[in-house]
Design brief:
It comes from Caenimonas terrae. Pfam families: Ham1p_like. Keywords: Hydrolase, Magnesium, Metal-binding, Nucleotide metabolism, Nucleotide-binding. The structure is a single chain. This protein is an alpha/beta fold and 200 residues long. The protein has one domain: Maf protein (Alpha-Beta Complex), CATH 3.90.950.10. Helices cover 30% and strands 22% of the residues. It has 5 helices and 7 strands. It has a 7-stranded mixed beta sheet with strand order 2-1-3-4-5-6-7. Helix 1 crosses helix 5 and helix 4 crosses helix 5. The longest helix is centred in the first third of the chain and has 16 residues.
Length: 200
């Protein structure tokens, strides 16, 4: 089955393709099919992911899957949340992973409460009108490191310190990170939901 990924992020494509491989699903980025990016006006991950999945399905006629993920920092009342991808732009930096990390560390330099969670919400639809979207959520709690460490992964992985590993996500081998990450958790749930509900 061909499934449209409602994202142009190569990192997400690679991670999700590996995680959904047991289903024999071919994941295709929406940009490869000429799908414009959806608006993300909502305040929650699930609403934005649903918006993106329906948009991709509407433009392609194919089933679609979308991921809305972000960093929720305790000291900021759960923010940046759905605005994670654009976090750096609030502080005069260009959009991008490195600038997001730089801005976060600057904003947290005098903050002792370093607790944070990475959250991934996956939503899959069979069609734009699907009344029963599949929804899977993964969440990993950790702490924001004082400086970036490690070279694996993307996004906030270099500063997301996971106490049970004693390392940041970016220090972990890719297979360990994928098995333990917020996106990994959500993808495993999604795998089971697709098997159960979509007869794959």
């Amino acid at each position: 089955m061909k499934l449209v990924l409602a994202s142009n992020n190569r990192g997400k494509l690679a991670e999700l393709q590996a995680m959904l491989a047991p289903l024999g699903v071919e994941l295709v980025r929406q940009s490869d099919l000429g799908v414009p990016e959806a608006q993300e006006p909502h305040l929650t991950f699930v609403e934005n992911a649903l918006e993106k999945a329906r948009n991709a399905a509407r433009h392609t006629g194919l089933p679609a899957i979308a991921d809305d993920a972000g960093l929720c920092v305790d000291a900021f009342g759960g923010l940046p949340g759905v605005d994670t991808a654009f976090y750096a732009t609030q502080f005069g930096y260009a959009k991008g992973d490195d600038n997001n990390v730089r801005a976060l560390l600057e904003q947290m330099k005098d903050i002792d409460n370093r607790k944070a969670a990475l959250v991934s919400t996956l939503v899959a639809v069979r069609s734009p009108q699907d009344p029963e979207p599949l929804i899977a959520v993964g969440r990993v709690a950790g702490e924001i490191a004082r400086e970036p460490v490690g070279s694996n992964g993307f996004g906030f992985d270099p500063v997301m310190f996971i106490p049970r590993f004693g390392q940041t996500f970016a220090q972990l081998p890719v297979e360990v990170k994928n098995a333990s990450s917020h996106r990994g958790m959500a993808a495993r749930q999604m795998l089971e939901l697709m098997r159960e509900r979509w007869s794959l």
